[in-house]
């Protein structure tokens, strides 16, 4: 009889094994450092010199639009940086930098195990869930910094997604409010919040001029269906109920599932793609950079995906959001008896699309394309959640350099004044 272990239990067991192995490795490392110091008169300073000053960790190539500008900036400043990716076809692997080293560390648990033994002063990542399941904090990392991959707030992050980061580079006041709310609720230490703005939004805005000019053909518009992933999302909830009437409009349809759907919802996507195969009218889009496909769309239909903000803030075009009862149970939003920020501001930026309206979707779309009032609230929301426009890259790189200097200065002070290995707490400041 075969022993069955459910995925949740398997994940927990793997986390325990990883934790044990990591602890043994660090214990062995510490012993070797002490022996070297005792028998050779060596110094722990040698170990500090071997640490990487800056490391970026990316779990997917889809974050290229965030990390490529940062890597370019480090290369321009001639600063050493290591970029670790879990995508073997990450475009950054082919950049040919001189000062930035780009390395594929393996997919899945192989890459995560590598990150658990990281030695670095500063580690920058957009991956939530640090120290929650498999990805553990390394004792040899001075500061873990989170950079958001959307300008929406963090209420739709999985529970405890940011709790163990040391700092977060926030895009706007909405993100600051939510982080402080979670910290106050759990009575945990406040993270350092730095109002850098959004690197990827700034870069997208700069490249708008490079895009082919798009003019809406009111008789034959292009509709983009852009979904998030999970049980209670657009394609999972409605699927063919939505796509069928859309195809019947005769309009050009682009379906762009969330990249995670191709990992976690394979069966659902295969079924939909079989029912609605690619054609001259319908396209399934998987572009790494979404800017070109957003530019081609005259109207977007989504759920609570962060791409809504990219689309409305950059192009100012109408958006429909599906009538979905948002299930907060697995998200940080569940701790609070209030509507999540994302669902609260959507009425200011677009129009709710209810299932009973699917049969009339052609007329509803044509009406929306000529209704300027739909975009009236976009500016207000944009001002709240996209600060420091045009200055995010410089602010991000400057902060990372400043933080690394603080960490190395703290290590030097610890070694000179308080004995080998004593940690010096770096004061947290809010910018």
Give the beta-strand count. Answer: 13
Coarse structural class: alpha/beta
Shape: globular
Terminal CA distance reads 59 Å
Low-confidence stretches: 1-12, 32-48, 417-431
CATH class of the largest domain: Alpha Beta
- Rg computed from alpha carbons, rounded to a whole number of angstroms: 24 Å
Largest sheet: 7 strands, parallel
Content of β-strand: 5-15%
Q: Compute the number of structural domains.
A: 2
Number of helices: 16
CATH topology of the largest domain: Rossmann fold
Biggest sheet strand line-up = 3-2-1-4-5-6-7
Overall pLDDT, averaged? 85
Helix percent reads 40-55%
Task: Name the helix and strand elements from N-terminus to C-terminus, one letter apiece.
Answer: HHEHEEHEEEHEHEHHEHHEHEHEHEHHH
Q: Which CATH architecture of the largest domain?
A: 3-Layer(aba) Sandwich
In words, what does this structure look like?
With 431 residues, the protein is an alpha/beta fold. The protein folds into 2 domains: 14-26 and 37-198 and 389-417, Rossmann fold, CATH 3.40.50; 215-385, Glycogen Phosphorylase B (Rossmann fold). 41% of the residues lie in helices and 14% in strands. The chain has 16 helices and 13 strands. It has helices spanning 7-40, 45-50, 64-76, 108-116, 173-186, 199-206, 234-237, 240-248, 261-264, 266-275, 291-296, 307-315, 341-349, 361-369, 378-385, 392-417, and strands at residues 52-58, 81-85, 100-104, 120-125, 141-146, 167-170, 192-195, 222-226, 252-256, 282-284, 299-302, 319-322, 351-353. The strands form 2 sheets. The chain has a 7-stranded parallel sheet with strand order 3-2-1-4-5-6-7. β12 (319-322), α13 (341-349) and β13 form a beta-alpha-beta unit. α3 crosses α16. The longest helix has 34 residues, at 7-40. The chain is globular.
């Amino acid at each position: 009889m075969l022993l069955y272990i459910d995925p949740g239990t398997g994940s927990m067991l793997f986390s325990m094994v990883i934790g044990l192995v990591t602890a043994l490795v660090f214990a062995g490392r510490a012993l070797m450092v002490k022996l070297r110091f005792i028998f050779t008169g060596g110094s722990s300073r040698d170990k500090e010199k071997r640490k990487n000053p800056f490391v970026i960790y990316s779990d997917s190539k889809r974050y290229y639009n965030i990390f490529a500008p940062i890597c370019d900036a480090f290369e321009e400043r001639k600063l050493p940086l290591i970029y670790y990716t879990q995508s073997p076809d990450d475009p950054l692997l082919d950049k040919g930098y001189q000062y930035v080293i780009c390395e594929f560390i393996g997919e899945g648990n192989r890459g995560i195990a590598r990150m658990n033994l990281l030695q670095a002063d500063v580690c920058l990542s957009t991956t939530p869930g640090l120290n929650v399941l498999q990805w553990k904090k390394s004792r040899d990392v001075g500061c873990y910094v989170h950079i958001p991959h959307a300008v929406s707030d963090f209420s739709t992050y999985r529970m405890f997604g940011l709790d163990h980061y040391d700092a977060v580079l926030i895009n706007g006041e909405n993100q600051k409010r939510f982080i402080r709310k979670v910290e106050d609720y759990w009575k945990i230490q406040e993270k350092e919040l730095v109002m850098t703005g959004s690197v990827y939004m700034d870069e997208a805005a700069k490249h708008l001029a490079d895009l082919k000019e798009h003019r809406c053909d009111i008789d034959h518009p292009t509709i983009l269906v852009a979904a998030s992933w999970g049980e209670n999302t657009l394609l999972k909830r409605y699927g063919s109920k939505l796509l069928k009437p859309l195809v019947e409009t005769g309009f050009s349809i682009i379906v762009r599932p969330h990249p995670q759907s191709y990992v976690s919802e394979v069966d659902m996507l295969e079924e939909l793609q079989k029912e609605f195969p690619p054609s001259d009218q319908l396209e399934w889009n998987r572009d790494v950079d979404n800017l070109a496909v957003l530019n081609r769309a005259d109207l977007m239909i989504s759920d609570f995906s962060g791409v809504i903000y990219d689309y409305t803030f950059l192009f100012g075009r109408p958006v429909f959001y599906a009538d979905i009862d948002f299930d907060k149970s697995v998200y940080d939003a569940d701790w609070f008896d209030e509507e999540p920020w994302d669902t609260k501001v959507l009425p200011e930026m677009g129009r709710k699309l209810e299932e009973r309206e699917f049969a009339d979707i052609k007329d509803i779309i044509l009406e929306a394309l000529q209704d300027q009032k739909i975009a009236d609230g976009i500016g207000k929301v944009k001002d709240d959640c996209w600060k420091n426009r045009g200055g995010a890259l410089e602010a991000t790189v400057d902060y990372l350099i400043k933080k690394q200097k603080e960490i190395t200065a703290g290590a030097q002070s610890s070694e000179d004044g308080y004995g080998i290995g004593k940690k010096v707490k770096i004061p947290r400041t809010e910018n």
